[in-house]
Amino acid sequence: MGGVRSSRYGLAHGYLVLDCEDEALVRRFRQLYAEGVAADAGSKVSIRVTCTVSLRDDVGLAEVVFDDPEPLDPVAFCLSVFPDRDYVEGPSSADGWRTIALRQDPGAPRVALHDNYALVDRRRIWQPFIANYAVNRVLRLQRETLFFHAASIGIEGRGVMIVGPKASGKTTTSMALAASGHGFLGDEVAAVDCSTKAMVPFRRAVSIRTGLCARRVREHLARRYYATERFPDGEERTLVNISSIFPHAGASTTMLSCAFFLRRFARYPAAEPFTFGTQHFPMLSPLACSMWGVPIGIKMINLSRMLRGVRCYVLDPGRPEATADLVERLARRRYLN
């Protein structure tokens, strides 16, 4: 073992301190959150979670301990924040340990949880689960911030959020905008203050699918080797830190002005304006950790308040450069039609 490696990551308004003996988990965080590394947590940071990972060679386990300021039901939380992983609660023990397993094999636990502790079998690939679990524990503490599965871009001082399901064009469009010189706050998670509408950068490594992308993005990807990762859906994607290919695409807080909801790919991009109402809530994709422990009424109030006065469009993306150009033009408009 190489001993404990300590690193610190800023996650919107929160902070994750990772003290870890597992080199693979350390590499994963450095690969995904390199642009969030910070030298010191600082005394002004009020939201802080420490994740300590120790390797138990005697029993072939990794022990994970969280120093978290608020109590948490870890099993219910994990089942909530990983809805697409087909997890179920597995066997439990008399001393309070509970487990999570895959639905197709409920008798073979993937992780054991008890309060702020977790145990994982080191013979399995466990690092992605623990990394996501740790990050979500930090996000759920940020009560005034709403986190969405969306891209966020800054265009001439205007904040743009691009919402859509998987493989709908969020990354392709946001990277095309970054290639045009606009601010890149993130392509996977958008962080928005529900009262001020301030969009906060949440940059992690971009995962690029094989297929359509902007010409400048494709040219940069061809110049050097980038790491790849196979995702739970079986698809292999290229992982790229945006600053390594577009260093000018800065990330600074901006005010949410426009929201684009991706619908379907088209030969030519097109956008239709609409006034957001309660009937459109299903179009949003807030992360489960952002809604954790919040009464449904408060959720609706926060979402309505955040989108009040925001120009909303249904967007059918086409060729990346043409789509980026359309988004630019609409974002620059000052008033609703």
Tell me what the structure shows.
Helices cover 25% and strands 31% of the residues. The chain is α+β, with helices and mostly antiparallel strands. The protein folds into two domains: 135 residues, no CATH class; 188 residues, Rossmann fold (3-Layer(aba) Sandwich), CATH 3.40.50.300. The strands form three sheets. Strands 9, 10, 11, 12, 13, 14, 18, 19 and 20 form a nine-stranded mixed sheet that branches. A hairpin with a 2-residue loop joins strand 1 and strand 2. The protein is globular, with a radius of gyration of 20 Å. The chain starts with a strand and ends in a 5-residue tail after the last helix.
Compile the SSE list and pairings.
Layout: E1 5-11, E2 14-20, H1 23-32, E3 48-56, E4 61-67, H2 74-81, E5 87-89, E6 98-102, E7 111-114, E8 117-121, H3 127-139, E9 145-148, E10 150-155, E11 158-163, H4 170-179, E12 183-186, E13 190-193, E14 198-200, E15 206-208, H5 215-223, E16 228-230, E17 236-240, H6 242-245, E18 254-262, E19 270-274, H7 288-291, H8 296-307, E20 311-316, H9 320-332
Helix pairs in contact: 1-3, 4-9
